[in-house]
Design a protein that fits this description.
single chain, 254 residues, alpha/beta, Rossmann fold, 10 helices, globular, S-adenosyl-L-methionine, EC 2.1.1.163, UbiE/COQ5_MeTrFase_CS
Length: 254
């Protein structure tokens, strides 16, 4: 179960440049998480763009290049929210399905014109080996059991298929890491207070970011779930990382 850092830099260089509701806690009860996202669904995509200074578009573009969905492929986009990423991945001709546990998020993304389904990542309603690839953007940290979800995703991906996950991470450069951790909770809490109908949701999101494992630890979890050739690429000083892996082919001995 190989884990490799920095193997995606060429892909990143090739990408074009693009400049009173419930509050979940870190126990991540699925129904609490779903209800929380239902409550912020209407303005969620806009809020992401504001809080990331527009970097979310750049991260999404690079993730799409790493995924490299081909015409005719079937791609599962988990924790897809309103389907903004799903629509991006589908532009190349792949059939991309947006799956999310939050009905509010899915309803707010109906205008995107991509197929959508309500689904729990730990109990996916799909047959074995249904998809050529699976992807998650900024959602896996909200799963109650990360490793179990990765195992379940592997079940529905074909042998030799791909996994691409874009998620917050840990800046490796100490000064950047210090500033990131020091101000993240404060900034997101203030943002939620002044621009959201559910400010507590943004406190949870900040806490979940700070509690998320670093690049190497997450890569190890992916490998332990049965995925091979795990590698990652840091984006924006490591504030975000893309992890890529593949499901072993049927004749694999590893």
């Amino acid at each position: 179960m190989e884990v490799v850092a920095g193997g995606l830099n060429e892909v990143a260089r090739a990408a074009p440049k693009v400049l009173a509701m419930p509050r979940a806690n870190l126990d991540k009860d699925p129904h609490e998480v779903a209800a929380m996202f239902d409550g912020v669904a209407r303005g969620y995509d806009r809020a992401n763009s504001v809080m990331t200074f527009g970097f979310d578009r750049r991260w999404r573009t690079i993730t799409s290049h790493v995924l490299d969905a081909k015409p005719g492929e079937k791609v599962l986009d988990l924790a897809a929210g309103t389907g903004v990423s799903t629509a991006e991945y589908a532009r190349g001709g792949a059939w991309c399905l947006a799956a999310d546990f939050s009905l509010g998020m899915l309803r707010n993304g109906r205008h995107r014109g991509v197929p959508m389904v309500a689904a729990d990542a730990l109990h996916l309603p799909f047959a074995d080996e249904s998809f050529d690839a699976a992807t998650i953007s900024f959602g896996i940290r909200n799963f109650v059991d990360t490793k179990a979800a990765l195992v379940e995703i592997a079940r529905v991906v074909k042998p030799g298929g791909r996994l691409v996950i874009c998620e917050v991470s840990t800046p490796p450069f100490t000064p950047i890491r210090f500033l990131y951790r020091k101000f993240l909770l404060r900034v997101m809490t203030l943002f939620g207070r002044f621009s959201s109908s559910n400010p507590e949701a943004y406190s949870y999101l900040a806490e979940s970011m700070l509690a998320w494992p670093d690049q190497r630890a997450f890569a190890q979890t992916i490998a332990e779930a049965g995925w091979h050739r795990v590698e990652w690429l840091n984006l924006t000083f490591g504030v975000v990382a893309i992890h890529r892996a593949s499901k072993p082919p049927l004749n694999s001995e590893a």
